[in-house]
Every structure is written in C-alpha cells, then in structure tokens.
Design goal:
The protein has seven helices and nine strands. Helix 2 runs antiparallel to helix 3 (99-121). The chain has a five-stranded mixed β-sheet with strand order 3-9-8-5-6, with no helix packed on it. The longest helix is centred in the N-terminal third of the chain and has 62 residues, at 31-92. The chain has helices at residues 7-20, 31-92, 99-121, 127-131, 134-159, 166-200, 222-234; strands at residues 244-252, 256-257, 263-267, 273-280, 286-296, 303-312, 317-323, 333-340, 353-361. The protein is of the alpha+beta class and 362 residues long. Strand 5 and strand 6 (303-312) form a beta hairpin.
C-alpha cells in the first residue's frame, strides 16, 4: 500500500531539492538568448559602419563633381571678364587707335566669346544643377555675352563711318544691354541658385565664383553710347576724313590706260567705254559717289555720261564702266575728262579728275 507524506514532509523534501541545485544570479539572461542579442548587435554595428562609409563615399564623390564643375566655371568667367575689361577700355579710353585696330580687337573679342560659349555648353554639370536649370542659366549668360559682342561690332564700326549717329547709338546701346543683362543673370540666377544648392547639400569648401563683364552697367544707356561715339570720333586717328580720287582710267576696246595730260589714238568703235577706278582716300564710307566722263570737241556741245558707285569704304577701290559715249570725228582732237565725286566733307579735290586728249582712228 502506497505511503503518503503529509504536507510538512513534502515541503521539507522540496527545500532539500532546491538546496541541491545551482542557483542563477539575479538579472543574468539565459546564455542562448544572450548569444543571440550579441550577434544582432554585431550585425547592426557592421550595417551602420557600411552605411556611414557609403554615405561618406557618395558625399565625397558629389563634392568632387561640384568642385570640378565650379573650377571650370571659374576659368570660363575669368576669361570672359577679361574680355569685358578690354572692351570697356576700348570704348572709354581708346587712346591713339585706328579703325583697323578697333576692328581687330572686336574680332578677337567675338571669336573668344564664341569659344567660351562652346566650353560652357560642353561642361559636365552636376545632376541637380541641370534638373533645376541652374547650369542652363550659366550657358545663357555666355550666350548673351557672345550675342552682345557680335551685335556691337558692326554697330560700332558703322557709327564711326556715318554722320548721323542716332540710330547707331541705339544699336550700340542694345548690344551693351545684352552684356549688362548677362551680369544680372549670372549674379541673381546662376550664382545664387548654385550657392543655395551647395549649402543645402552641405558641400563645405565649394565656392561659386563671382563674375562681372561690365563694371559700369550705365555704359549700356543710349546717352553713354552717344558719348562713346563722340569720344571715338574726336580721337585724332579716328576723326572723319572724306575724299575720293580717280585712281585709274582704261579705254576700251583698246585696253589703253589714259593718263592726265597725254594724247592717245583710240579705235572708233560702238564698243567705246571707259573703265574708271575710284579710290576712297578717307576713312569714312562714302555712298552714291558720282563718276562722270565727258567727251567733247572745242566749239561743240560735249557728251556727258554719269554713273554712281553705291558705296565705297575707307581705303577701298571700286571700278565702274562708263558706256554710251560716241567717238568723235576721225582725226579730230577731242578732250576726255573723268571726274569722281566730290563727296560731302571733302577738302582736297585736286585728285578728283583727270583730262587727256584723244584722237579716234578707223
């Protein structure tokens, strides 16, 4: 028959069993759970390290891209600003310069600005600068500078050749406004926008370069343009000089050169013509220059034919053919007189004409 212990006996047995076991210190987690937690912590540490490393690498690459871009921008605007400084000096302090020197300098400015615009278009810009149209505004700045210079060159050269400079001053003013507007776009849109992005992305050490093409924006006003023209025209070597001359006369169909004071035998022909070469000995373009050939015999009404040269630039030679004159009678001495001009403002006219004697033969 089974033996049952009373409650006191059971309690004594439990106490004895508890004494025999090794007790776990309070607050210590079971070993398997502790190992799992340590492993998870290790994984987390590794992940954090990797993320930090990747972020640092990505940030470093982004900073490098921005730095490379801004270095290129700095090089371009430095060269562009040098053009602007040279242009300002040319317009406000021309010194003893010639029209040819002005033309050469303007040609150089235009050519260089075209190259810089191309460089700007070919820049590899950071993605965000492109996405927010910041880089596109930089290209626009360089386009404005190129277009302004291209427009200024013919306007300025024309102003030096015409008497009425009102239209030329308006054209010069408009060309210069392209240049001052390029400064506004650069500072207000490109530089500000690029700087904001650099700050937002915490790209320390990245600086957006400054740029100023024209130091004096008032240079673009029409009043300033008029002053520029007046100053250039008052410069000794740029003062207006008017004058044309008869450079050469050829009689056809004989291909005979006619010189002043000489006598020539010419073929009596229905193809009679005089090829007259006129030279502009001044520095101003002359328009509608008359060329007159007169052929006559003493005591008779002379024949006269006039042609016009639409335009002849300073220093240029233009040849025109004068037809419609009939040969005088065979064996009779006739006088041929060739005249060019005079043009408005011409002071020396001694070389505007020549006379020679001609005798027509069968």
């Amino acid at each position: 028959m089974a033996e049952f212990k009373n409650s006191d006996a059971v309690e004594d047995d439990l106490q004895e069993e508890t004494k025999g076991r090794k007790r776990r210190p309070k607050g210590l987690l079971p070993t398997p759970l502790l190992r799992l937690i340590i492993a998870l912590v290790a994984v987390i540490v590794v992940v954090v390290v990797v993320v930090v490393a990747v972020t640092a690498t990505r940030g470093g690459g982004e900073a490098s891209d921005y730095q490379k871009y801004m270095t290129s921008v700095s090089s371009i605007v430095k060269q562009s600003d040098a053009i602007g400084a040279g242009l300002s000096t040319l317009l406000t302090q021309p010194g003893d310069t010639s029209r040819k020197e002005i033309q050469t300098k303007l040609d150089g400015f235009v050519s260089k600005s075209q190259q810089l615009e191309t460089q700007a278009k070919n820049l590899a810009a950071p993605k965000e600068l492109v996405d927010k149209n910041i880089h596109q505004f930089f290209v626009m700045v360089m386009t404005f500078r190129r277009e302004g210079l291209e427009s200024l060159e013919p306007s300025l050269m024309n102003a030096l050749e015409v008497e009425d400079t009102d239209v030329a001053a308006e054209q010069i003013s408009q060309a210069l406004y392209y240049l001052t507007n390029s400064d506004f776009l650069y500072t207000t849109v490109f530089a500000k926008g690029a700087t904001d992005i650099v700050k937002e992305r915490s790209l320390d050490g990245i600086t957006v370069p400054a740029s100023k093409f024209l130091e004096d924006p008032d240079l673009a006003s029409k009043a300033s343009a008029q002053e520029i023209i007046s100053q250039l025209k008052s410069t000794g070597s740029l003062q207006a000089v008017h004058g044309v001359s008869v450079s050469k006369v050829m009689a056809q169909p004989d291909a005979q050169q006619i010189k002043a004071g000489q006598t020539y035998n010419l073929t009596s022909s229905e193809e009679l013509a005089f090829q007259v070469t006129v030279q502009n000995q001044g520095n101003m373009a002359e328009k509608d220059v008359p060329v007159v050939v007169t052929l006559g015999v003493e005591g008779e009404t002379p024949q006269k034919v006039t042609v016009s040269i639409p335009e002849i630039k300073g220093g240029e030679k233009v040849t025109v053919e004068v037809k419609g004159l009939n040969p005088t009678d065979y064996g009779v001495q006739a006088t041929v007189k060739v005249e060019a001009g005079p043009v408005p403002g011409e002071k020396v006219t001694t070389n505007n004409s020549l006379e020679a004697t001609v005798i027509f033969k069968l």
